């Protein structure tokens, strides 16, 4: 008897960047900042960070979002970065000429970056969490609170550091 399996809805988009010429540690420093964040927040972080590793990662994230909007017809506001990994790749050996006809080896390291973006509009876990956050109301102990700044300045408070 032949049974047909149901195809699962594709919820994730994968992007791989191979042999990017930078140290894996330097790329990991940026990837750790964007893991688990939304697409819009990630773009803002990558544009404002002043690391050389931001530009290739920015290109990969942008490519993943365009693939998700084209292949899965999902909105970019619903995308989050679910996985982001940086692995060491091959290193190229070059020779730098030195004095007296000698040469010195220089190793240029490369890395592989993989980014997985997930659409949260299809996912039930995120839908429940966001709905619970919107239902909860903030309850304050006191409705009106006043902060006495004059008491801090009289007693020294903030400015009394030695």
Automatic annotation (TrEMBL):
Gene Ontology terms describing biological process: translation
Subunit structure: Part of the 50S ribosomal subunit.
UniProt entry tagged with the keyword RNA-binding: yes
Stated family: Belongs to the universal ribosomal protein uL22 family.
Single GO MF descriptor: rRNA binding
Primary localization class, coarse: plastid
One annotated Gene Ontology cellular component of this protein: large ribosomal subunit
Protein name: Large ribosomal subunit protein uL22c
CDD domains cross-referenced by the UniProt entry: Ribosomal_L22 (cd00336)
Function in brief: The globular domain of the protein is located near the polypeptide exit tunnel on the outside of the subunit, while an extended beta-hairpin is found that lines the wall of the exit tunnel in the center of the 70S ribosome.
Entries under InterPro entries matching the protein: Ribosomal_uL22, Ribosomal_uL22_bac/chlpt-type, Ribosomal_uL22_bac/org-type, Ribosomal_uL22_CS, Ribosomal_uL22_sf
Source organism superkingdom: Eukaryota
Database matches in Pfam families: Ribosomal_L22
Subcellular location(s) per record: Plastid, Chloroplast
PROSITE patterns: RIBOSOMAL_L22
Keywords assigned by UniProt, alphabetized: Chloroplast, Plastid, Ribonucleoprotein, Ribosomal protein, RNA-binding, rRNA-binding
Protein source organism: Gentiana phyllocalyx
């Amino acid at each position: 008897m032949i049974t047909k399996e149901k195809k699962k809805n594709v919820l994730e988009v994968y992007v791989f960047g191979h042999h990017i010429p930078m140290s894996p540690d330097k790329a990991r420093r940026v990837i750790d900042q964007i893991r688990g964040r939304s697409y819009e927040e990630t773009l803002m972080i990558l544009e404002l960070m002043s690391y050389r590793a931001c530009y290739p990662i920015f290109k990969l994230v942008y490519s993943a979002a365009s693939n998700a909007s084209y292949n899965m017809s999902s909105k970019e506001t619903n995308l989050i970065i679910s996985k982001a990994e940086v692995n060491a790749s091959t290193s190229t050996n070059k020779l730098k000429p030195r004095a007296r006809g000698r040469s010195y080896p220089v190793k240029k390291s490369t890395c592989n970056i993989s980014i997985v973006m997930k659409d949260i509009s299809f996912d039930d876990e995120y839908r429940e969490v966001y709905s619970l956050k919107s239902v909860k109301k903030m309850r304050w102990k006191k409705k009106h609170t006043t902060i006495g700044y004059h008491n801090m300045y009289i007693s020294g408070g903030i400015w009394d550091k030695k």
